[in-house]
Amino acid sequence: MMFKCISVLPHTPCVALGFAIARKRLHDGLVKLHPEVSEAIANKKAVLALESTIITHGMPHPDNLSTAKEVEQIVKEHGVVPATVGIVKGKIHVGLSDSDLQYLAETKEKIKASRRDLPYILTKGLSAGTTVSATMMVAHKVGISLLVTGGIGGVHRDGQNTLDISTDLTELGRNPVAVISAGVKSILDIGRTLEYLETQGVCVATFGKSRDFPAFFLPKSGFQSAFNVSDEEEAAQLIANAHKFGQGSSVLIAVPIPEEQTASGLLIDDAIQQAVEEARDKGILGKDVTPFVLSRVDELTKGISLTANIALIKNNAKVGSRIACALTRQSSHRYSTLSQSPREKPDAHEQLVVIGGCNVDFIAKAKQGNLVVYCLSRLGLNPLFISAIGKDVNGDAVLRFCSHMDTSAVVMLPEHSTAVYCAVIKVNGELSLGLGDMDIHWQITEPYVSKFKEQLQSASLVCLDGNIPTSTVDYVCRFAEEHGIPVLFEPTDSIAACKPFKSDSWKSLTYTSPNLMELRAMNEELGLPVPAELPSAMKDVIDVALDMSRPLLKHLHCVIVTLGQQGVLLCGKSEEGTICLQPKKSPQIEPDKVCAVHYPAIATEEEEILNVSGAGDSLAAGIIAGILTGQETHTCVRMGLLAASYSLRSQEAISALISTDSVNPQKVIDRVWQQPTTYHPKSDL
Q1: 185 tagged catalytic
Q2: What is the 3-state secondary structure (H, E, C) of 219-260?
Q3: Are 372 and 430 in contact (CB under 8 A)?
Q4: Is 420 helix (H, G, I), strand (E, B) or coil?
Q5: Residue-wise pLDDT tens digits, 277-334
Q6: Residue of 118, 163, 159 lying closest to 136 (CA atoms)
Q7: How many angstroms from the chain centroid is the CA of residue 52?
Q8: DSSP letter assigned to residue 417
Q9: Which pLDDT tens digit goes with each residue over 289-304?
Q10: Which of 23, 250, 418, 631 keeps 20 to 30 A from 169, CA to CA?
């Protein structure tokens, strides 16, 4: 089952809500999300990232494998989804299968990977365990806000001379993923490590009643944290506030080793001192120090250190899981990987308003006979959503899954059923059959929408979809015209496409985003001549689309024609060979000033296409997001094309990987863009 808030587009909340821009599959498939992790991220469930060097370098086999499985089981028992991060044969895995976990635990051809090492390992197709810094980096990119480890790296002894400082510390200073650990490894200079963390702006708090900072195998290091948090609720609030404030750096929660392990900790500490001296005598430096010391300490303590290490990581997993649950429970917390400048969101008094249907979608995909559950996409902004749902199980589910958006204008009607839509998807990702019960959409009436006049009047943009009644479309268009509000109309099918064109309402629209069939229906409703059959050849498609858009452009600012695999065609007023998407109040556009700009779709191999049902929706979402954040036309369209390409390669209708960065053309450096082509009406040639 997939819950979707349909607003601007037929089968996705993404555009309707504005800017739930599909997150890209990181760097063209270099990151593989385990299905359970992907679903949990998209549905805002509790997820806990786990680093993997403890598997590849921290423990001997078979203890490493058994401990990894036991830790994951502890996390699951707390109702949290474990996401162990590791690199298997050149691909970063977020959530390891049993076979991948066993491979990393047993293979000798593996590397200890920090942030620095990732490009080389991926290029060479190698396997590696990820350190705290690398795991934080990956977790941040996929939207996981919490990470558990044994102990972080730090400033090595004599680090003031050698400058041997773990990249974990710099990552903590620039990455908002919170880290749960037993402090720092005992082999390090703990005092200087804490000073360095302060310099990096990392909030350090001890978990418990005191501020004593732990030293891995010892509950007290002789140093103190800046703060303490008494329980998981307080820890979660600390992390949530850091995220909401946009601090940008991490929160480090230091968890003392359980009291029953304290006695063995003293014995281990003596062994560590000896092992450190031996490492120095042997000239062992850098990232090779920790594996040597851990192995030597295990020998000196005759296995006691290994037992304590396992107990320590299990305890951290328990505490981290409880914090993850508390973080999820706190409804005010909304973790985001976005670093948005003030211009990237409308002002509070210019909230985006969306008026449209709210559906619960059941999507069945023909693939090995399994039902594929799609997930609700994460959203970038918080528009006011005006819609109607039933007082039933599906309505409750919609509100629960849309808790991160403003649903104060969604009315719950006891005598009606929440709209449902069932889509059957072919193996190649195409829609085979769609059936729906949309009767409740007729309750989104003019009197109901008029209750939100104040919000409509101050809106930065009003998005309408074709699900709502024609009378409601007319009312909103008249209101928008009176108050100078930009309006985007998204037809949900060829019949719905005609609604604004049954009167003069369409003349108040700023944008519309039909496909070719919907554009033909609009022209037919206006009594204009249309082709009996739509062309398939690209040049003919563009000519026909431009000819049918031209009469609409006497009043509309831009017609965004979606062409599927052939990309997108912008039809609008010609400004030096291009079209400005930013809304303007200007006189009627003369026909001889109209042009079309064609942007080819991003090439996607056929075998990579998993689902086409959300690609068009993602395209429009990216474009609208670009418009509302003040981007120039090329950037707006490329944002949409990127979003569409990610959804095509996702088993979900809208890719679970969502971020403003992932659809920012300037940050997607591995993409070579095809240049758009400008066309003019045949009569102008």
Answers
A1: yes
A2: CCCCCECCEEECCHHHHHHHHHHHHHHCCCCCEEEECCCCHH
A3: no
A4: strand
A5: 888 888 887 767 777 887 888 888 887 888 888 999 999 999 999 999 999 887 433 4
A6: 118
A7: 23
A8: P
A9: 777 887 888 888 887 8
A10: 23
Only one residue has tokens 């058994």, namely 66
Instruction: Please report the domains of the chain, with CATH numbers, ordered by start residue.
Output: 22-262+306-329 (3.40.1790.10), 352-684 (3.40.1190.20)
* Active-site annotation holds for 607: no
Q: Contact, 20 vs 654, CB < 8 A?
A: yes
List all residues 6 or more positions away from 684 whose beta carbon is below 8 Å from its beta carbon.
Answer: 592
Model confidence pTM above 0.85 = no
**β pairing state of 353-355 and 462-465:** parallel
Closest CA to 550 of 530, 578, 575, 533: 530
* Amino acid at the residue 464: L
How far does CA 285 lie from the centroid of its chain? 38
Residues with Cβ within 8 Å of residue 53, at least 6 apart in sequence: 112, 113, 129, 130, 131
Cα–Cα dist 462/479, whole Å:
11
The one catalytic residue in 39, 51, 72, 490 is: 51
- Residues of the chain below pLDDT 50: 1-28, 331-349, 361-379, 425, 428-429, 431-433, 586-589, 658, 685
Q: Which of 4, 24, 32, 185 is catalytic?
A: 185
CA distances to 340, 341, 626 from 346, in Å: 11, 11, 12
Sole residue written with tokens 């830790």:
71
Question: Which positions ≥6 away from 538 have C-beta within 8 Å?
Answer: 566
